[in-house]
Amino acid sequence: MHEETYINLERGVPPIATYLGHLLYKCRFGDNYKLWMIREGGREGSPALQGERLKEFNRKIIEELQLFLKSPVIGDIYDMEARKRAKDILKELAPFL
Fold first, then answer.
1. Using CA atoms, how far apart are residues 69 and 79, in angstroms rounded to an integer?
2. Total Cβ atoms within 10 A of residue 69
3. For residues 30 and 23, what is the distance between their CA atoms, to the nearest angstrom?
4. What is the C-alpha to C-alpha distance for residues 85 and 82, in angstroms, rounded to an integer?
5. Cα–Cα distance for residue pair 2/76, rounded to 1 Å
6. Cα 22 to Cα 61: distance, rounded to the nearest angstrom
7. What are the tens digits of pLDDT across the range 33-61?
8. Number of domains present in the structure of the chain
9. pTM for this predicted structure
10. C-alpha angle 79-82-86 in degrees, rounded to nearest 5
């Protein structure tokens, strides 16, 4: 799950369409994301994806997902899962379109 998330983030997949980002979204902490490199004892630890809750809906999420779905398909399992999550989220957010 972490590997899939970070591979997709490196590819430019919107955080909300990654495995961990989608979990944060489902917990209502997915309106804004930050990717952190956590320092532990002077060494870089594992990256961390942080989701934040905004007070009003962030239309940027819809635009990022629509742009991602128009991007070239890579075709591996990580890409296919991210695209499926993106489509599912857009269906949920349809009232905001």
1. 10
2. 15
3. 8
4. 5
5. 16
6. 12
7. 777 765 566 566 667 777 877 656 668 88
8. 1
9. 0.76
10. 135
